[in-house]
Amino acid sequence: xxxxxxxxxxxxxxxxxxxxxxxxxxxxxxxxxxxxxxxxxxxxxxxxxxxxxxxxxxxxxxxxxxxxxxxxxxxxxxxxxxxxxxxxxxxxxxxxxxxxxxxxxxxxxxxxxxxxxxxxxxxxxxxxxxxxxxxxxxxxxxxxxxxxxxxxxxxxxxxxxxxxxxxxxxxxxxxxxxxxxxxxxxxxxxxxxxxxxxxxxxxxxxxxxxxxxxxxxxxxxxxxxxxxxxxxxxxxxxxxxxxxxxxxxxxxxxxxxxxxxxxxxxxxxxxxxxxxxxxxxxxxxxxxxxxxxxxx
Amino acid sequence: xxxxxxxxxxxxxxxxxxxxxxxxxxxxxxxxxxxxxxxxxxxxxxxxxxxxxxxxxxxxxxxxxxxxxxxxxxxxxxxxxxxxxxxxxxxxxxxxxxxxxxxxxxxxxxxxxxxxxxxxxxxxxxxxxxxxxxxxxxxxxxxxxxxxxxxxxxxxxxxxxxxxxxxxxxxxxxxxxxxxxxxxxxxxxxxxxxxxxxxxxxxxxxxxxxxxxxxxxxxxxxxxxxxxxxxxxxxxxxxxxxxxxxxxxxxxxxxxxxxxxxxxxxxxxxxxxxxxxxxxxxxxxxxxxxxxxxxxxxxxxxxxxxxxxxxx
Lengths: 296, 312
Hints:
The structure holds two protein chains of two kinds.
Chain A: H1 2-44, H2 59-66, H3 68-98, H4 106-114, H5 121-132, H6 137-144, H7 158-183, H8 187-195, H9 200-227, H10 230-238, H11 249-258, H12 262-290
Helix pairs in contact in A: 1-12, 2-12, 3-7, 3-9, 3-11, 4-7, 5-10, 7-9, 9-12
Chain B: H1 3-35, H2 40-55, H3 78-86, H4 88-120, H5 125-139, H6 142-155, H7 168-184, H8 188-197, H9 202-210, H10 215-226, H11 228-243, H12 247-252, H13 263-266, H14 275-302
Helix pairs in contact in B: 3-4, 3-14, 4-7, 4-8, 4-11, 8-11, 11-14
């Protein structure tokens, strides 16, 4: 009996070691391609040049903060994310709740909404150009109704276009995530609320929202990740040098990569990483507050 | 109106709204496909203004307006003929996209299966900490991660491949590897898959062990089949993400290696002379992902029931 227990423990230990071994390839890759070089990036951000290697404190950061292109890029990127992410969250949740109703052809509509996810941006970029060209479809419609036309891609209104493109691409998948979350809310709780005479607003705020909160957080993170990829749409629509309001952080990074200014690149990467860490911390705190009482 | 009738009325109006919105979502895709069957004359007549604005030279177009057309005047497959048969340039770029995206997707998934297995068995404090680092890394945008990637790849000589002094074929291989390697280690699919694997009840594992299954068998015979729909949906998300990639090739493939750029980058640089083909190129480029979507839509929908929260 004792022997068997010992062997069991031995097996357990072996399994444990095996489970750690499974992590090794991935950890090695992450160390080589991300973490170790990021340490070098931090080092580069506080020296004057890779060759001389003199410590200059926060000078690179100060220079970066004074850089007009960086400020513009950071502001545009932040504005875009702050508008597009909450908007996609609200719209996809709204759509998911509408699709909860008994509508004929529901699954076909779901497919339609989901389709932009699987259509490469590069493929449809021409259609977007046709729509938002100065003499394009949208302006023709505006003209027909006697409104004032806008040169969409060459004016501050360009942000509207990229927000629309972002929503078009992301709403479908977010909606699917919300739909499956809505389905998994226990029916009996809703029924009890109905019996007690709760209104639909009450049901939404006090029951559904609680069960949805982990999904809301997940969608928020996915949308945030995707919002930093909007550079792709902007680049495909307008190329390397877009209108002022469409100049994104990735444009700034690309241009800095071209003349290989390591100080600028490193300082920008570290600064952006710090901002993202603050954002992640806020999200984690939010998860701890809202996610607690409904977990599993 | 009775309550029931009122309900019915509301359902119908919501249905109409949803239908309209859904059709609007499908529109850009349909328009691209429809326009890909146009003659190149018709394209320059309708869209010429757009392209000459970009390149700024001689004005060949008929009207200043850009007229969106739903149905071509004359349906032809000339565009496709040029793209697929006459001009091998596009096929080369298409191949560039495939040779980057397929290895990235396959290897990222294989690595994710192994790593997620490691994370989901015997969870502990150290593993929790490592997983947390992965979450942070996953959320970091490419604007941050491209800088460390570039430093390493540059150190290995994988950016300026001309200086390596190897054959041209080898240069191309190395330059592609510069895009593939960091992407394979991106933790996105590990994050999603670990959450799925953690939900697999331990009783399955115990039962398999009684039957004498080893760890590798548990991984391949129990975990893998149970994650199938999740794997398909994660695979699709990863594939489309890299099929769309723009910033990585722009930064990591320079000099002569720009000829290795995938079609997603190239499509933005299409010139006026080739404008007549642009829609067909776009249509060809969406074929793989559309096929994938038709095959895997149900997986995409059911494979994500697990999602929610950040931490495991």
